[in-house]
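TICKET: design request
STATUS: open
ATTACHED STRUCTURE:
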């Protein structure tokens, strides 16, 4: 079988490869197979006749939205001064937005409804999650990918750019209803161990960090995309809509967020488990997902309509947000792994916390919607420890309590919760919420 190679400009992802391959195979006579490579910028065509028409090949490539030729590699650092001016302006706006949100207490939003919140309360909890912890994890992913997609495809209409977000949120709601019903029926939640959750969050954070750096345009050589293997892309139908996300892949991505370790989500999952009912469990999780929609759709809506001179500033702003969220998620994931660096700590105490009762060290900690107090305690090595955690807000990230070192992962109940363990080594032991956001340290001394 004969083969011929053509250089192509403008490819940046697996979808580009699939569009070009399918276009050539369907439109050029005699072509049996086409193999495109966006990293190397070429397509290799296999055919069974003496020659093929270059004109037909060029037209098929043009019809797919690409050009014949070679992309030139840019410098490692951008030499365009306007990039840095826009980035500086975006940084100033981000700092101002952060200060305003801190003043108005956006970061401390939480609800306390006791053990059995009503249906309206569940939607309100979802609304809070959609603009807080879910926004930090799921929203960060949505923002990074949607902003990158809008930047790469300026020719797409706002409706084309926004449509995938509808499928993403539809996938969330459907999976939350079905899986919520299943865990309600089974009476137990599907849960990863804390080190696995930590690794997952770190991975998500690193992807967000890379996507954020791309959006800033400071590093031109960070081209291309983070993508699925081509075979999986074809299976999910990513090539089904030209210049647009696959609705199927958007739907499946939204469905998969059920397993991401947002504290609000896990609090609702525990509530669904407690019902022992498929109907009630599905209703609880479905309403919660519905509540998160305004925040997540808002992100998609903004990225869908930006254009003109404002677009460049917005993408810098989005890039900085995604970088910050990526770094935070890497930090949160690290907290969940249980790995500690034995560095000097100014908070370390030499005085043992709590009291001794019946041969155990009893330490009292209060859980609030925004963390734990005290979050730095000291105990003696080799003596059993009883933590008495007074839970005051069950529907916040901090309501799931984790001590990775002892594989303790529990959903707190209203009132006093008892957790026991025996430290066998000196040094710091981390505890945190299930997302790694709210943390504390148990210092073990001789």
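STATUS: resolved
RESOLUTION: sequence designed for all positions
ATTACHED SEQUENCE:
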């Amino acid at each position: 079988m004969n083969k011929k190679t053509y250089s192509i400009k403008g490819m940046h992802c697996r979808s580009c490869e699939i569009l070009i391959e399918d276009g050539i195979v369907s439109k050029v006579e005699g072509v049996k197979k086409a193999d495109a490579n966006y990293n190397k910028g070429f397509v290799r065509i296999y055919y069974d006749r003496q020659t093929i028409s270059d004109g037909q090949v060029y037209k098929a490539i043009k019809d797919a939205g690409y050009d014949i030729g070679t992309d030139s590699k840019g410098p490692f650092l951008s030499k365009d001064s306007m990039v840095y001016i826009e980035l500086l302006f975006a940084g100033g706006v981000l700092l101002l937005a952060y200060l305003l949100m801190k003043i108005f207490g956006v970061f401390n939003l939480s609800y306390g409804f006791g053990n059995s919140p009503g249906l309206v309360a569940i939607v309100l909890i979802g609304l809070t999650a959609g603009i807080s912890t879910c926004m930090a994890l799921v929203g960060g992913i949505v923002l990074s990918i949607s902003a990158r997609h809008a930047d790469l495809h300026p020719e797409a209409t706002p409706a084309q750019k926004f449509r995938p977000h509808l499928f993403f949120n539809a996938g969330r709601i459907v999976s939350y209803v079905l899986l919520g019903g299943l865990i309600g029926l089974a009476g137990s939640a599907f849960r990863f161990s804390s080190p696995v959750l930590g690794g997952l969050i770190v991975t998500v954070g690193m992807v967000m960090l890379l996507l954020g750096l791309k959006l800033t345009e400071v590093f031109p050589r960070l081209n291309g995309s983070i993508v699925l293997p081509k075979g999986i892309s074809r299976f999910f139908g990513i090539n089904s809509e030209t210049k647009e996300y696959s609705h199927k892949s958007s739907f499946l991505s939204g469905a998969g967020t059920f397993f991401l370790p947002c504290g609000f989500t896990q609090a609702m999952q525990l509530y669904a488990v407690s019902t022992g009912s498929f109907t009630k469990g599905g209703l609880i999780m479905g309403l919660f997902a519905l509540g998160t929609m305004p925040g997540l759709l808002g992100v998609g809506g903004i990225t869908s309509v930006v254009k003109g001179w404002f677009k460049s500033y917005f993408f810098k702003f989005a890039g900085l947000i995604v970088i910050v969220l990526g770094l935070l998620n890497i930090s949160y994931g690290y907290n969940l792994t249980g790995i500690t660096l034995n560095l000097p700590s100014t908070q370390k105490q030499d005085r043992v916390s709590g009291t001794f009762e019946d041969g155990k060290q009893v330490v009292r900690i209060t859980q609030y919607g925004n963390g734990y107090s005290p979050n730095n305690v000291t105990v003696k090595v080799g003596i059993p420890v009883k933590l008495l955690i007074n839970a005051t807000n069950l529907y916040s990230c901090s309501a799931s309590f984790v001590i990775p070192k002892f594989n303790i992962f529990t959903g707190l109940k209203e009132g006093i919760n008892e957790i026991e363990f025996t430290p066998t080594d000196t040094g710091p032991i981390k505890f945190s919420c299930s997302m790694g956001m709210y943390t504390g340290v148990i210092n073990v001394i001789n």
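CLOSING REMARK: Residues 235-245 have pLDDT under 50 and may be disordered. The two ends are 75 Å apart (CA to CA).
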